Amino acid sequence: MNYDVEKIRNQFPVLALHDKDPKPFAFLDSTATTQKPEFVINAMDNFYRKHYSSIKRGVYSMAAQTTDAYESARKKAAQFINAKRESEIVFTRGTTASINLAAWSYGRKYLKADDEIVISALEHHANIVSWQLIAEERGAKIKVIPVADNGDLILEKIPELVIPGKTKIVAFAHISNTIGTENPVKEIIRTIRQIDPSIKVLVDAAQSAPHVKIDVQDLDCDFLAFSGHKMYGPTGIGVLYGKYEILESMPPLEGGGEMIDQVTFEKTTFALPPDRFEAGTPPIAEVIGLGAAIDWLNQVGIEAIYQHEQEILKYAEEKLREVPGLHILGAPKHRGSLLSFTLDSAHPHDAATLLDEDGIAVRSGHHCAQPVMKRFNVPATIRASFGAYTQKWEIDRLVEGLLRVNRIFAL
Ligand code: PMP
């Protein structure tokens, strides 16, 4: 495979800077957020230095250029997930905001008392709490697809949980941020469609967008949410994809500039999607940064990144076996590029603190997925996660660091 990880890594200023340190920085927290390549930083820097203006409102040429750049990022996002139309891409603050937008806008209009929303036992809090809030307001109920000990969802339970006429929404993650389980999205959606084609399906793609080629038409999801900062782009920007007919039937969540058609004191009519859902001056530089991140991902090739990450994952799974008393959570059929584990010797926070002393960045805690911790009967885990730039020496350093944790806590 001619994937030149060294060359890719050098495009990331933070990593390149610390690779020269006596204890080079091992960044194993890409699931939380990825580092940014020069290409993305430059796109945002150029915008601020050379072209800065608002969008849509001005007739002067710089404003027109910025509007073009903004809309061209929308086109890139649409092509990135193979949406049928650019107008199916709504820019939001991130996955959390995207799920909340779908939950509140769709839910307020369509959910009634005793309707049901089905989620999975592997969800991030963003895909649990958003639904609980709207369910509480509408008097709807939440049901949960259970997870097996290996971290795979128990898909056979879907026909028991998803009930024609009662279930209105099913929402689940493409890839779990705690165990890494890659769910068979297409198969799950096909099963739901067979039960009741009118059920709306939301896919949380926060952890899949930077790793797996997504085709919303092939998956046949109704909504899909992802964040820029987890796919080499900036913070503060994300996407809610929605099938156009569904978005068109949904009311706006926020009122303000640029989301209207006509305003009088008596009545306001709204713009068509996506403008209807993008009130106010948007995060323009972040949208441009997201567009650049998509260009960067396309240049490197998402399939090549996936293969590289899977190689790192296999290497990490093998190497971590060298650490006595280490237990990896789950063994799903398909795992994304992350591993969660516990140590017999130390609490995850203590272990992560000692790893930090060695310049090794991992995440410790419940990973915004407390129900997953409860299901697997652990208070917290250590999570090591990988990206396009991860190298094997970082895994070696992690293993050395964990052996040191074992030595210190054995004292
Ligand atoms: N869903 C999943 C699966 C996630 O991993 C995350 C981020 N950890 C989110 C949702 C929320 O994303 P954001 O914080 O970017 O809104």
TrEMBL record:
GO molecular function per UniProt: cysteine desulfurase activity; lyase activity; pyridoxal phosphate binding
Any one biological process term the GO annotation gives: cysteine metabolic process
Keywords per UniProt: Lyase, Pyridoxal phosphate, Transferase
Substrates-to-products reaction catalysed: (sulfur carrier)-H + L-cysteine = (sulfur carrier)-SH + L-alanine
Cofactors demanded by this protein: pyridoxal 5'-phosphate
Keyword Transport: no
E.C. number: 2.8.1.7
InterPro entries documented for this protein: Aminotrans_V_dom, Aminotrans_V_PyrdxlP_BS, Cys_dSase_SufS, Cysteine_dSase, PyrdxlP-dep_Trfase, PyrdxlP-dep_Trfase_major, PyrdxlP-dep_Trfase_small
Keyword Cytoplasm found: no
EC class of the enzyme, as a word: transferase
Domain of life, per lineage: Bacteria
Domain Aminotransferase class V positions: 27-398
Described purpose of this protein according to its UniProt entry: Catalyzes the removal of elemental sulfur and selenium atoms from L-cysteine, L-cystine, L-selenocysteine, and L-selenocystine to produce L-alanine.
PANTHER family per record: CYSTEINE DESULFURASE, CYSTEINE DESULFURASE 1, CHLOROPLASTIC
Similarity-based family: Belongs to the class-V pyridoxal-phosphate-dependent aminotransferase family. Csd subfamily.
Protein name, as recorded: Cysteine desulfurase
Organism: Hallerella succinigenes
